[in-house]
Design a protein that fits this description.
By secondary structure, the protein is mostly helical. About 75% of the residues lie in helices and about 0% in strands.
Length: about 80
Amino acid sequence: MDRDMVTDYINRYLEEIKLSLDFLKKRENEAQRARLIKELASVSGLSGRQISDIIGINRETVRKVIVSYCQKNRLLDKLSPLDK
């Protein structure tokens, strides 16, 4: 995805949840922010730094969300099909 496509994706996401980018940055909207970061990381092919630049959120915050998401997926992959 190029930067314009990512920006369009973000705008559609924000319209869907009825928040502006400024409100997404607030602590009380942490779950929505994490969901957006996870989706961008998995579908856009952008680095964490690029995601943080586009949405204007601290790079370390983006890194923590991505690391948490990757660790959770690794744990789920290790479970047997019966455990899921």
